[in-house]
Amino acid sequence: MKNLSQILLIDDEAHNRDALSLLLTHAGYQVETAESGEEALEILRKTPFEIVVTDLFLPGVSGIDILKKVKEDSPYTNVILITGNASAESAVEAMKEGAFDYITKPVNIEKLKIIVAKALEKSRLVAENLYLRQQLRGKYKFDRILGHSLAMQQVFARMERVVNTDSTILILGDSGTGKELVAKAIHFNGPRKDKPFVAINCGAIPADLLESELFGHLKGAFTGAVADKAGKFEVANNGTIFLDEIGTMPLHLQIKLLRVLQEQEVERVGSSKTIKLDVRVISATNANLEETVKRGHFREDLYYRLNVIPILLPPLRERREDVALLARHFLQKSCREMKRPLMSLSTEAMIALETYDWPGNVREMENVIERSVALTDGEIIERRDLPPNIAGVDPRGMQQVLSPRITAEGVDMVRIVEEIECGLIHEAMALGGGVKARAAALLNINRTTLVEKIKRLKLDVEKI
């Protein structure tokens, strides 16, 4: 059997030790034994164990001594104590020292196997949680947000200043600039990194459901409220809540949000009981909130409460010096995920990327690179392998697909017209945020006509 779970069994009575070792081995565990506390500590210095099963009363170094040492050196190792009936009270006291559980003599092997299985499950869950947290911390380190332009260096400097504070932050930037990534980087590099990070897109949830999502509700508070539910603020308690697209929040909820921010407490829908909170709030918007305030669609007092420390993320077209860095990063990432040898971008392809305006910003670039990796046969991505709306930008700035010249050999007009249509459709979809109705309006055609063209040209517009 592979990957057996390791158990250290400690008992000074040979017949008990041998019997339990045999039974646990037959149950599928890898068991090592020790006949004294001193021997056990020597083994523990050399070998890690997931579970330690020890008699409570041992000559010399006791089971309690072993428990304390294990918890000091390896807090995620679970310790199970074995004790005589008369000493059950002592075993319960040992639980306060961090023992996982105890079992009395004579040992019921079925009960012991159940306790061991539960202890093993807990050890693995804790280890997995620790690993995931380490992964998250690595994933959201500042150096994972790429950019050597002056604009991005200013963003990094602002992030460094606020990461260890509890100040409320408003992240401003166009769609696709990485606002949530910045919010996560601030959270996972700050003092709340081991607490929840809860994100909610205020624009993606219907207004009549948003209040319940944010603040929770009691059973029966409204039709469909079949059970009590904690809101996102409660779930994020002691951690960070990220309110994306905050500018879309209805006015009546803005009033309640303002009170939550001012009082640091929340009331569930249908309840008059207040729940105290300790939550850091980071919000984000791609809208001009000052203009929204002037139009009366966003409360001025809430705007100032949210905009304590603003972080402005520049669009990609304003930091073209970062395009090559980002393109190579996404190229490595896509090749790794698709298990392909590392590819490269030709000079013309790179210049085309740097010339393009990137209305969808960093998110659009990631999708473009992923698509190009998937559809390119060779190891070099040429300009022709990029989407038509990007490949149509001539690297010398002299000619575009939209204005081809007829040579003596003639031209393939059908192909050129299709390339023009492809480029215009991709650009309209990007500018329209992936919504076909908006893209059709930009092209001055009906939505059904746009859908028919997408099908005829076999365009992949889902990742735009």
TrEMBL record:
<keyword id="KW-0547">Nucleotide-binding</keyword>
<keyword id="KW-0902">Two-component regulatory system</keyword>
<keyword id="KW-0010">Activator</keyword>
<dbReference type="InterPro" id="IPR025662">
    <property type="entry name" value="Sigma_54_int_dom_ATP-bd_1"/>
</dbReference>
<dbReference type="InterPro" id="IPR003593">
    <property type="entry name" value="AAA+_ATPase"/>
</dbReference>
<keyword id="KW-0067">ATP-binding</keyword>
<dbReference type="InterPro" id="IPR058031">
    <property type="entry name" value="AAA_lid_NorR"/>
</dbReference>
<dbReference type="GO" id="GO:0005524">
    <property type="term" value="F:ATP binding"/>
</dbReference>
<keyword id="KW-0597">Phosphoprotein</keyword>
<dbReference type="InterPro" id="IPR002197">
    <property type="entry name" value="HTH_Fis"/>
</dbReference>
<dbReference type="GO" id="GO:0043565">
    <property type="term" value="F:sequence-specific DNA binding"/>
</dbReference>
<dbReference type="InterPro" id="IPR025943">
    <property type="entry name" value="Sigma_54_int_dom_ATP-bd_2"/>
</dbReference>
<dbReference type="Pfam" id="PF25601">
    <property type="entry name" value="AAA_lid_14"/>
</dbReference>
<keyword id="KW-0238">DNA-binding</keyword>
<feature type="modified residue" description="4-aspartylphosphate">
    <location>
        <position position="55"/>
    </location>
</feature>
<dbReference type="InterPro" id="IPR011006">
    <property type="entry name" value="CheY-like_superfamily"/>
</dbReference>
<keyword id="KW-0963">Cytoplasm</keyword>
<keyword id="KW-0804">Transcription</keyword>
<feature type="domain" description="Response regulatory">
    <location>
        <begin position="6"/>
        <end position="120"/>
    </location>
</feature>
<dbReference type="Pfam" id="PF00072">
    <property type="entry name" value="Response_reg"/>
</dbReference>
<dbReference type="GO" id="GO:0005737">
    <property type="term" value="C:cytoplasm"/>
</dbReference>
<feature type="domain" description="Sigma-54 factor interaction">
    <location>
        <begin position="145"/>
        <end position="374"/>
    </location>
</feature>
<dbReference type="InterPro" id="IPR027417">
    <property type="entry name" value="P-loop_NTPase"/>
</dbReference>
<dbReference type="InterPro" id="IPR001789">
    <property type="entry name" value="Sig_transdc_resp-reg_receiver"/>
</dbReference>
<dbReference type="Pfam" id="PF00158">
    <property type="entry name" value="Sigma54_activat"/>
</dbReference>
<dbReference type="InterPro" id="IPR009057">
    <property type="entry name" value="Homeodomain-like_sf"/>
</dbReference>
<protein>
    <submittedName>
        <fullName>Fis family transcriptional regulator</fullName>
    </submittedName>
</protein>
<dbReference type="GO" id="GO:0000160">
    <property type="term" value="P:phosphorelay signal transduction system"/>
</dbReference>
<dbReference type="GO" id="GO:0006355">
    <property type="term" value="P:regulation of DNA-templated transcription"/>
</dbReference>
<dbReference type="Pfam" id="PF02954">
    <property type="entry name" value="HTH_8"/>
</dbReference>
<dbReference type="InterPro" id="IPR002078">
    <property type="entry name" value="Sigma_54_int"/>
</dbReference>
<keyword id="KW-0805">Transcription regulation</keyword>
